[in-house]
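User: Teach me something about this protein's shape.
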Amino acid sequence: LDDPPSGWPLGALYRQQAAQDLPSLEALSLRLTVEGWAEPVGRGLLLPLKGAGAELSGFLLVGCSPRRPLDEGYRSFLNLVAGQLSAALADAQAYEDERRRAEALAALDRAKTEFFSNVSHEFRTPLTLMLGPLEELVVGDDLTEPQRQRLSLILRNANRLQRLVNAL
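Assistant: First, the predicted structure itself:
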């Protein structure tokens, strides 16, 4: 990544992952003024914002006060601000990722519930239609004992299947 012709040190920021001095904001076509100050903000810093995994996820442009020298204490403060902003952005991204996962799980749960409701309904209808006539046959008088025993076995298994479908 090379620096663009406009003079912005984005390539250096990306390669070094460290603050880049902007000695003249006006040379970068920026004019920052502060109400109540006679002099404009002429100098700035381009600070890296690192995401999870310490990769560069963005940058922060800050204008430096023309009334205070850009010494080590000032730089440390601005680096701390960039670090806090990076952490806040990473937290927001993690929250958003977790929200998306929760929505996906909820959609999956809804689909599962709908599937099992449909399946149980489709099984219950023919079972109910079979159980009525089967019960009538078992209690009727037209069967031999071996036939009644076989139909009773079928009825028990059909009732068991209906309990399983209801549990589903």
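Now, about its shape. The mean pLDDT is 89. The radius of gyration is 37 Å. If you'd like, I can walk through any region in more detail.
User: That's plenty for now, thanks!
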